[in-house]
Every structure is written in structure tokens, then in C-alpha cells.
Amino acid sequence: MAFSLLASPVPAAESAPPDRVTVEVITANGSGCPPGTSAVAVAHDKTAFTVTYSDYLAQVGVGAKPTDVRKNCQLALRIHYPQGFTYAIQKADYRGYANLQAGARGLQRANYYFQGMSATESRSHWFNGPYADSWQATDTSEGPNMVYAPCGETRNLNVNTELRVQAGSSNPSTTTSFMTMDSTDGSIRTTYHFSWKRCD
Fold first, then answer.
1. d(C-alpha 119, C-alpha 111), whole Å
2. Peptide bond into 130 cis (omega under 30)
3. Would you say 160 and 112 are in contact if contact means Cβ atoms under 8 Å apart?
4. What are the strands, taking DSSP E only, across 43-84?
5. 131-188 per-position pLDDT tens digit
6. What count of other Cβ atoms lies within 10 Å of the Cβ of residue 131?
7. Rounded CA gap, 122 and 131, in Å?
């Protein structure tokens, strides 16, 4: 993902904070994450957190409503971590399952930003039918392209995701194509990888 640089001192490189890190969902809005259908958990080593959805499905064709072709979710997250540290999102791994008929296409798109700052450029990933398998898309930011939360300030991390399915040359009157980022058993997760630094 592309970022604009923060106009603040660059902190020194550091491993994960020694104390507890938690992620709190402040709000979850969108057709892809109705109330009670998303959950967040922090990895034990504090290098990442995962988001699990249970009702995130875009589809077109037989049985689908016109509004089902696009689903989205905006999460406002509060990251709690020890003072003296800050973080950026270095990498995001998105996963799901798609069943796309020949001629159909599926899109996964995402961006994120800190409260009060400009949104990152959306990175789009297309999948072309015929396709019936799990899918994965990874967005990576390295070095000077990583934007860190301002030191000493508490700002929500806003995460925006979108799934879209296009019928294309497939026949939506006789077939159904869908793309999902949900998981009924918790095995499919979206993972955001932290880059930690110590504030000056």
C-alpha cells in the first residue's frame, strides 16, 4: 500500500513492546460486517492482529440481490500499547474463498489510515473466472513508505475493505458467482502485521 510520509521524527527501530498489546473495535460499519459478525485478536508475539468476519459475501446471479454485488466494511480500531512506542502496518494479508463462473470477475480492495490523516491509496486485486478455490491477496509497505502513528497521541486506525463481483460475460440468470472474506469456523482471517518503533 502506498502512504504519504508523516511530518514527524522517525523513531528508532525496535522489536515488539514488552507489555500487553490489545486491539479494540470502536465501530464496525458496512454491508460486509453487520453488527456482531467481526472479531479481532492480537497474536501472542504482538507482531500482528487478525480480523475474522462471519458474514462478508459479495455475489451476482441466481439468488443474489442487486446490492449483493458489492460489500464493504469500515472498522475503527483502537490499538492499546505501552507508552514510548508507536506502530505502522507493514503488511496486510487478506484471505477468503471465491467461486467465479467463466467470464465473471471478483475484486478485493482495501486501504487504511490513522484518524485525522489522509487515507492510503487503495490496492486492488482481481480474480478471474473460472475460479473455485481459496484466494489470498497481500499488500506490503516497506521503509520510508510506512506511516507510523504519531508518538504520544491516541488515534484510531481505520481499516476499509471491499469485495465486488462482476458477472462479465457469464450468464447471471442461470449461474451464481461469489467472493467471500468470511469464515464460519474462524480459520480464514485477515492479518495485519505491525512494525514497532520506539519513540524518541
1. 7
2. yes
3. yes
4. 48-53, 57-61, 70-80
5. 999 999 999 987 777 889 999 898 999 999 999 999 999 999 999 999 999 766 666 7
6. 18
7. 24
**Which residue is associated with the grid cell 468476519?**
53
Grid cell of 171 as nine digits = 450468464
The cell numbers describing 121, all together, are 491509496
Amino acid at 124: S
Q: How many helices (H) and strands (E) does the chain have?
A: 0, 13
Rg (C-alpha) for the chain, rounded Å, is 18
All cell numbers assigned to 12: 528508532
The residue behind cell 485478536 is 41
- Max alpha carbon distance in the chain (Å)? 61
Tell me the whole-structure pTM to 2 decimals.
0.84
Residue 70 grid coordinates = 458489492
